[in-house]
Every structure is written in structure tokens, then in C-alpha cells.
Amino acid sequence: MKKLLVFLFFASILYGYGQGSKNIFSRDPIINLENFQKKDIYFGFYLGFNSYDFKIDYKDQTPDILVKKTTGFNVGIIADLRLQEYINLRFEPGLYYTKRDLFYPQSDFTETNQPFNATNKFREVNSTYIHFPLLLKLSSLRTGNIRPYLLTGLSATLNLSSNAKLIDDNFQQKFRVKTWTPNYELGLGIDLFSEYFIFSPSIRGVFSLKDELIRDNASNGLSPWTGNIDSMKSRAVFINFSFH
Asked: What CATH number is associated with residue 107?
């Protein structure tokens, strides 16, 4: 699935380049939507895919927790404010759904009184995020109907599935993380100008800045699920297809 998504992303760029190159090298190039991005503000929407992971740092050197990633989906809106010819301020709130499966090693259970069985060694982390990124879009010079750009900025993520308010924890099979997470983001994309709209495929990395894990309520700290974790931070790859 990941290879297919990457293939579709670069295929769309190559297709746009092929279409744009006809205009670049023709005698009378047709420039689509020439004045569209000269507007002070414009709006759009996006659809896309995500792949979330956890970056886990441990207190003691033990076998790593295996994180099995899945492909989730994204949907959201875009508000774009033109600051300068090549710089835009962009707000892209959206809804992101993803799932991660955690498989714990047997060594995490050796000093606890919890049995190492199929139920205890596995935790499913379903996440429904509302994502609030504020980004700078740094565009290059437009060539024909193609304009590459870079994205960078900060974001805040509200996890609607965090379980943060629950008293129950992993001893009752409830995996808990914090409700809000700050992040930084880096990405790149390309604007492809058609006759009626702008199609913009982009790929972006998102990196959490703070530990998200809520520790279990074990009085002696001997939780096989959270006891050896120093920090757990989300990181993700977004592939979005935007329309303006």
C-alpha cells in the first residue's frame, strides 16, 4: 500500500510535468489560471492518506516494542493567505484516522506479575485526530503550469480517542495517551495548473514534540506496558491531494 501511494504521488507529478512541458516548449504556451494565486486569500480542500508510527525511547536497553503501522485517511479544508509573491501562510484543519498495533516483547513482563499471553502482549491503538497545522508555503518560480513548493510549520493535534480521562489503564486493557500534541512539519509538493482548478499533490512528515504516553497506575511502577518507556512520540507521513 505504501509503495502504491508513493507511486501515485510521483506519477501525478510526472504527468503534470509532461502536460506542463508541452506549454513550456510550444511557440504559444497556454498559461492556465495565470492570476489565481495573486489573490490575497483563497480556499480549497484535500483528501489523502497517512501512515502513523511511534518513536519510542526506553529507560533500559531491552528488545523494542514492535509497532505495526496501517494506512489511514485524511480529509480537510485549506485557507491560504498570500504574504508575498513566493510566500503563503496556510491553515489546513482536517480529520485524520489511523491505527497502530503494539506488540510487546516477553522481556517487558519478566519483572512483573502479569502473564505473557496473546491478550497482554498486544495493544491496538485506534486514533481519530483533529489536526490544526499552520504552515508556511514557500513556492518557487512558476514554470508554465507547474510550481513546486516547500511546506514547513507547526501544528497541534487533538486526539479524540486518547482515553486520557479514564481511570482504567492497561491492566484493564485501556491504552492511554495525552489529548493534545504539538508537532513540527516538513514537506514538499507541486501545484499543477489546469484550465479550471489547481491540483496539488504533496508529501509531508509530521513529528511530535512531546511525550504522549500516560503511564499506568501501578504503585511500584512495574507496568509491562509503560514502565520501561521513557518517551513515546507520534510521527507520521501524510500524502495529500489538494484542490483549489
From this structure: 2.40.160.20
